[in-house]
Every structure is written in structure tokens, then in C-alpha cells.
Amino acid sequence: MSYSFFESVEKSFDKAAHFTKWDKGLLAQIKACNSVYSMRFPVKMDDGRIEVIEAYRVQHSQHKTPCKGGIRFSPEVNQDEVMALASLMTYKCAIVNVPFGGGKGGIKINPRKHSAYELEKITRRYTAELVKKNFIGPGIDVPAPDYGTGEREMAWIVDTYLSLKPGEIDGAGCVTGKPISQGGVNGRKEATGLGVFFGVREVCDMPDIMAKLGLATGIEGKRVIVQGLGNVGYHCAKFFREHGAIVVAIAEYEGAVYNENGINEEELFQYRKATGTVLNFGGATNIINSSDALELDCDILIPAALENVIDGKNAPNIKAKIIGEAANGPLTPEADEIFAGKGVLVIPDMYLNAGGVTVSYFEWLKNLSHVRYGRLEKRFTENMNHLILEEIEELTGKQATPKARKLIEHGPDEIDLVHSGLEETMISATREIMKIWKENPEIPDMRTAAYVCAINKVATSYTELGIFP
Ligand code: NAD
User: Which atom of ligand 1 is nearest to the CA of 306?
Assistant: First the structure.
């Protein structure tokens, strides 16, 4: 049986709800998408043609506001997909204690088939439509990048919003993932990939889990396959490689490349930029049918492209012991069941790729506070650390090495604080979910444990609002 993406999310939710004690009506409210805005608007293309653009913004839950979630540009966008992604955002934010409700947006276009000028017109018009219906604003709904969008699109959104809402003092917080010059935060670009790395590393550091999987603890030496060399996939590959893992294969939509000695993602990225393909990359073997790469021998598989790429058909052939869902919804419910049966650990999207929204939260806070992280304390901390070090040196009669001195005296920059906040968030969330799973051995997989964690938090928040006493 095949399910739509939203149905898959509902199915996973129901499976988890069974392990909670909440009222049925409350569970139904949590599951429902509160507001769905489906829009059509005309845009004149470069050749003079008028195209009717299909787009969506879904606010899944306002149990906490603003709603938060990315905007996707893809020819596959449809209402069901945006609803599913918005629901996942509610659960994701709850797990990582980001005080937002879930939202998501999508524009049904292939960004590769439009000029930058056409994309700008589409993005600005979409933003104006959101403003007209009160579907965007720092206290209402705050979009961010997702598949097919990035800093450039976020800059167009904030500029359009501010021009329509002049004088709104917190207006920069209407969207996150902006360039630094437009109110962005250092560390947002790599946040999702880095969060995936922190989450998988934490699992790999759990001796009992690794023993069950027949793997050694730690990231070092683990063989990793990454699908998608976009923002998330690129940064996943980078952080795994930098921490001693071997990225043996990287898959893009035109094909994949394999090298048992490891692939450097930056070199591959530059190569693809120059040639338009990952194929024939120096020293690597071509895999013409890209999805075959998912079935190669490895320890960790990171799907970081799109949803439903692993289903009942290819799941039995997958050899990875750990699947880290960097993309949203890469596995179908059938695949989940097959992996649970095979003893493969699936680290679920719902929290594993929460790095983006976590750092978006930091960006939003920065916009509301109108001050860069670290600005107030950096010099103070450095001066204090310098004094403490001097005192220790005098008392011990020993000198710190120049390397140690630099490390100890360093006061935090924005990037240090953002990475540290992200690391703390991902480690705590991983431990919280694992604790729920261990305390209830009936829970079949980590995804269900993550849903239980999310449902408990959203339900508690509803009851605290007094809506469901
Ligand atoms: P992106 O557009 O930067 O990159 C996606 C990449 O996947 C592209 O390079 C594309 O060519 C490639 N791709 C498409 N189809 C493929 C296929 N069949 N096989 C292999 N590669 C394929 O998008 P992104 O921001 O990296 O998002 C990727 C996934 O991560 C999405 O599911 C998105 O919802 C999820 N995600 C993104 C963020 C974020 O902060 N950007 C946060 C959470 C989740």
C-alpha cells in the first residue's frame, strides 16, 4: 500500500500516539493542519509570457507562535507535501525546545528553469501575497530556506516585507536564513548539516547502541554515503570527513561516485560546478543509476536530497547499519518497518535535521534583540581569562604554551556561540529520545520514540494554554 507524504506522517503519529495517554480529541487537534493557504498568482516571464504560479503556505500549529518552516522551490511541490513538511516542523521544534509552531511553504517551480530575475519576481510576489493575508511576520509566521532556496531568496523576502511594512522595528525577524548583511546569523548555512553530524555522533558515542549494531563506538573510520550535494548534504559530508569518517560515495541526481578511500566534498562540489556533473570525478568509480549508490556497503547512510527515496523496494538491499535522515521524509513507512526488522537504526528526520530551525531560532532572537551574539561579552571574557591565566602562571611558576594561551583566552564570537548552542541542542534531544525509547521497550523504533517526545511536549503546551484542561 502506498501513502501520500502527509498520510505517512499521520501514520507515524498514530503509531506513537498509542504509547501516550493523551485524550483522543487533543491528539486529533495536534495532528491537524490549522491553516492552509493555497494561492495562484501571475508572473510575467523574461520572454513576455504570463505564467500562473502555484504556491502554498501551511501553518500546521499555533500552539506556539510564530510558526516556522522553510520555503521549497520544486516542480514536485503540492499541498499534501507542504502539509506533511509543516507537521514535521511542529514536532521538530517541540523536540529541540524551539518555541515555535510548525509551518512550511512551497512554490511549484523548477528553479533551474528560471532566470534569477524571474525567481526574484516570483519570490517577491509570493511574499506580497503572504503579507496581504497576514501569513508572514516576526510574530506570525517566519519562513526560512529549504530545498531549492537559500540566502538570496531570503534576502528578497525580507526586503519585500520591510518595504510593505515600513518602520516595523522587528521586521528583520520575518524570515531567517538571511545573508549576514541583511540580519542573518553566522553559522546558519551549515547548521542543518552540522546538526545531523552532532546527532549521529552522539548516537555513535552510545556504547550499548553501537554494540547492538555490531559497530565500534565513535565516528572515526566509519564509512558514510551521502545522497544530495546541496546545502545539507555538502555540510554533512564535510563534518563527517573532518571528524575522521570516510565519505565513500556521494550521489546527485545525474549519478553517483564511489571511492573506498574517501571523497572530498569540496573538490567534488567544485568539479560539479565546472562540469555540471559528479560523474568521472578523479579516482572515483561512476554509478550511473544514482539510487544504486544507496545500496553500497557502508556503516552510515545519509539521505540529504528529497523525500520517499527509500521505500519497500530498495530498503531490503540497503547495507548501512545506521540511516541518518538529513532530508525530510526520505523513508516510507514500509522502509521503516523493513529496517526495524533488520535491526538497522534509523535516526529520524524529525529531530536529526533540526539544526536549521535551531539556528534560525538564534537568528530570530538576534533580530529581536538587535545585537550580534558575543558583542557584549567577548572582550570582557578575554580580559577575565587573561587575568586568570596570569594568576595561575604566577602561582605555578609555569607558562602556558602559545596554543593553550590562545584557546583559553579566546572570548566567544557569534559563530562559537551558535555552534555551541546547536551542539547542546542536538546532544540533549538525542539523549531525551533515547531515554524515552529505553524506558519503553515496546516502542519499535527511534522515530516512534521521537514522535512520543514531540506529542508529549505539544500536548503539555496545549494543556498549559488551558485549551484542553
Ligand atoms: P538543496 O536544494 O540545497 O540540495 C538538494 C540537493 O539534492 C541538490 O543538489 C539536488 O540536485 C540533489 N538531488 C535532487 N534529487 C536527487 C536525487 N534523486 N538523488 C541525489 N541527489 C538529488 O536542498 P537542501 O536545503 O540541502 O535540502 C535537502 C533536504 O534537507 C530536503 O529534504 C530539505 O527539506 C531538508 N532540510 C533542509 C534544511 C535546510 O536548512 N536547508 C533543514 C532541514 C531539512
Answer: 32
Q: Is 104 designated active site?
A: yes
Q: What is the pLDDT of residues 295-324, one digit of tens each?
A: 999 999 999 998 889 999 999 999 999 999
The neighbouring-strand residues paired with 141 are: 67, 137
- Angle at which helices 446-465 and 79-95 cross, to 10°: 80
Rounded to an integer, what distance in angstroms lies between the CA atom of residue 274 and that of residue 95?
A: 40
Per-residue pLDDT tens over the stretch 170-196: 999 999 999 999 999 999 999 999 999
What does residue 21 show for φ and ψ, rounded to 5 degrees? Answer: -115, 20
**Ligand 1 centre from 106 Cα, in Å?**
14
Asked whether the predicted pLDDT for residue 469 surpasses 60, the reply is no
Q: For ligand 1, atom 24, which residue shows the shortest CA distance?
A: 147
3-state class of 166 per DSSP? coil
Global pTM exceeds 0.90: yes
In a mutational test of the pocket of ligand 1, which residue from 5, 147, 289 has the highest number of ligand atoms less than 8 Å from its CB? Answer: 147
Alpha-carbon distance of 197 to 256, in angstroms, equals: 21
Q: Are strands 67-73 and 50-59 parallel, antiparallel or unpaired?
A: unpaired
Which domains does the chain carry?
Answer: 33-182 (3.40.50.10860), 185-377+412-469 (3.40.50.720)
Spell out which residues line ligand 1, taking CB within 6 angstroms.
145-148, 192, 227-233, 251-253, 290, 304-306, 326-328, 353, 356
Strand ranges (E), 167-244: 223-227
Give me ligand 1 centre to Cα 303, in Å: 9
Amino acid, single-letter form, for residue 357: V
Q: Check 68, 92, 104, 378 and give the catalytic one.
A: 104
The predicted-structure confidence for 328-386, as pLDDT tens digits, reads as follows 889 988 899 999 999 999 999 999 999 999 999 999 999 999 999 999 999 999 999 99
